[in-house]
TrEMBL record, chain A:
One of its GO terms (biological process) is cellular response to sulfur starvation. PANTHER family: ALKANE SULFONATE ABC TRANSPORTER-RELATED, MEMBRANE SUBUNIT, TAURINE TRANSPORT SYSTEM PERMEASE PROTEIN TAUC. Residues 79-255 form the ABC transmembrane type-1 domain. InterPro entries: MetI-like (IPR000515), MetI-like_sf (IPR035906). It is found in: Cell membrane. This is Putative aliphatic sulfonates transport permease protein SsuC. The keyword Protein transport does not apply. Belongs to the binding-protein-dependent transport system permease family. The lineage of its organism: Bacteria, Pseudomonadati, Pseudomonadota, Alphaproteobacteria, Rhodobacterales. The keyword Membrane applies. Keywords: Cell membrane, Membrane, Transmembrane, Transmembrane helix, Transport. It comes from the Bacteria. Its main location: membrane. SUPFAM superfamilies: MetI-like.
TrEMBL record, chain B:
One of its GO terms (molecular function) is ATP binding. Its EC number is 3.6.3.-. It holds the Pfam family ABC_tran. It comes from the Bacteria. This is Bicarbonate transport ATP-binding protein CmpC. It comes from Shimia marina.
Length: 270, 255
């Protein structure tokens, strides 16, 4: 039998999915053990048990001075920035994507501009953003918006143009105005794409967020990681990294579920 | 004055001449089939009737109106595919035919209830009542085309344009669709233009069959001469004309 035709059965598939995680964990434990055996004071690869302890402390024990649990504060601040930036980007890309996709005048005016804009490396603009928008929340949100909006806009515009011309003509023969075509024909058909765009761009959004927080901030997940870096507190950094990964995973899963529930017609053909 | 009149229409894309000197008239209730080789301009002609394209020269008028600049509710259309909206249920697709012309694209209150009742009537007529709540993607090709025709008719257009409407269907379904279309036509007396590749279909359904072809062929530059209507067959009575001549001229029977 050919390799391409061999499929794992159900329990086997779950096991196979677990293998890389287990391998990573085991490899880390062994490496950590080796380093700690040589030097019990080693900070570079803390034992998994130490990380678990640190995690428990970070999640439950309040800071001595502020009487607040820092991890939750960081999480709230970072999520607010992230969701604000992504939300604004989604709204902007939807509006411009629909305009560029449907209106030849908007396309002639904006499509090149957006294409050039999407080539600008957003992190290179970070100093400018800090100067223009200050060191507060605004510059971080703007970095995310600048970072992901052009790419989302381009993709959505392309999706709108991919709607079969027959449908647009048909809507006109039913008397629909440009506005009705945008709102009732194009918009509902690109909304699922918008959600998958958001899912794709969340990775970059996290990147921009953590970069901005690392450079200038006083609260946030990225800020904390770069702060404790100075003390080589790998247990804290690793806890934060795992926590961020978990958050990203949950957001992605939520979006996927929403998409599936809200757009049953997408799957009607499957 | 004819119901639909096409006067000396030309179409060209850049230097390529597609159609030239196309003149034809059709009466209300006529079913006109349009055939021709690929690339002969028959689909271009249909797009001009639809006002998706404007003629380079000449006039196309329905009931004496001016040449339209964009598609409107006077013209209903069914394409080979993509004619229905995939994100709307079968019933909503029919209601869109009434709702899309309003300011916000949907009906409310009493108007909505009436439209829903009319949509249900149409669903019964096109035999799709049992799938009213489903999305088009879950329907078979034939059902989707019936829905597309029902949707076009719900908007009550003056002329119905069909662009190879049964081209993607299997032969059995195609025959069913022929019967379905003939029944609808008997009920509505709709004026229809249908582009098709299938000559048998063209003669079976049409009252007339227009053939598009290039009248001349320039060996140096084949693009310089466009196509036009080279034949205009009477397709009634199984394609044999003058079968009812005695009804019109009873005196010929004597002798």
């Amino acid at each position: 039998m050919r390799l391409i035709n061999m499929r794992p059965a159900r329990p086997g598939a779950v096991l196979l999915a677990a293998v890389p995680f287990v391998v990573l964990l085991v490899a880390y434990s062994i490496a950590s053990d080796m380093r700690l055996a040589a030097n019990p004071q080693d900070k570079l690869l803390p034992a998994p048990a130490t990380i678990a302890e640190t995690a428990q402390r970070l999640f439950t024990v309040p800071d001595k001075r502020s009487k607040e649990i820092l991890l939750w504060q960081d999480t709230a601040a970072s999520l607010a920035r992230l969701l604000g930036g992504v939300g604004i980007s989604a709204a902007l890309s939807l509006i411009f994507g629909l305009a560029i996709g449907l209106l030849p005048y908007a396309r002639a005016t904006l499509s090149r501009f957006v294409a050039v804009l999407s080539m600008v490396p957003p992190l290179a603009l970070l100093p400018i953003l800090f100067i223009v928008f200050g060191l507060g929340e605004l510059s971080k949100v703007v970095l995310i918006v600048i970072g992901i909006t052009p790419f989302m806009t381009r993709d959505l515009a392309q999706r709108v143009m991919d709607i079969p011309k027959e449908q647009i003509v048909k809507a006109q023969t039913l008397g629909a105005s440009s506005w009705v075509i945008a709102a009732r024909v194009a918009l509902p058909q690109v909304l699922p794409r918008l959600i998958s765009n958001v899912r794709l761009s969340l990775g970059s959004a996290w990147l921009f967020l953590i970069a901005a927080e690392a450079v200038a901030s006083n609260v946030g997940l990225g800020y904390r990681i770069f702060l404790v870096r100075r003390y080589l507190a790998m247990d804290v950094i690793l806890t934060y990294v795992i926590w961020i990964t978990l958050l990203a995973f949950v957001i992605d899963w939520l979006l996927k579920t929403v998409s599936r529930r809200a757009f049953p017609w997408m799957e009607a053909g499957l | 004055m004819s119901f639909v009149s096409v006067r000396n229409v030309w179409q060209r894309y850049g230097d390529r001449s597609i159609l030239e000197r196309v003149s034809v008239t059709a009466e209300e209730g006529e079913f006109v089939s349009i055939v021709g080789a690929s690339g002969c301009g028959k689909s271009t002609f249909l797009r001009m009737l639809l006002a998706e394209e404007r003629p380079y020269k000449g006039e196309i008028s329905i009931e004496g109106g001016a040449t339209a600049v964009e598609p409107n509710r006077e013209r209903g259309v069914v394409f080979q595919k993509y004619s229905v909206f995939p994100h709307l249920t079968v019933r909503d697709n029919l209601m869109a035919a009434e709702g899309f012309q309003t300011r916000f694209g949907r009906l409310r209150g009493a108007a909505r209830k009436e439209a829903a009742a009319r949509a249900d009537q149409m669903l019964t007529r096109i035999g799709l009542s049992h799938v009213a709540q489903q999305f088009p993607a879950s329907l078979s090709g034939g059902m989707q085309q019936r829905l597309a025709i029902g949707q076009a008719l719900t908007a009550k257009p003056r002329i119905l344009l069909l662009d190879e409407p049964f081209g993607a269907l299997d032969p059995g379904t195609r025959l069913q669709m022929h019967d379905f279309l003939m029944e609808l036509r008997d009920e509505t007396n709709m004026t229809v233009f249908m582009v098709t590749h299938d000559l048998e279909e063209a003669f079976k359904l049409g009252d007339r069959v227009l053939v598009f072809d290039k009248p001349r062929w320039d060996p140096q530059d084949p693009n310089v001469i466009g196509a036009t209507i080279t034949y205009d067959f009477d397709a009634r009575h199984g394609g044999m004309p003058h079968q009812d001549i005695l009804d019109h001229f009873p005196s010929l029977a004597a002798g």
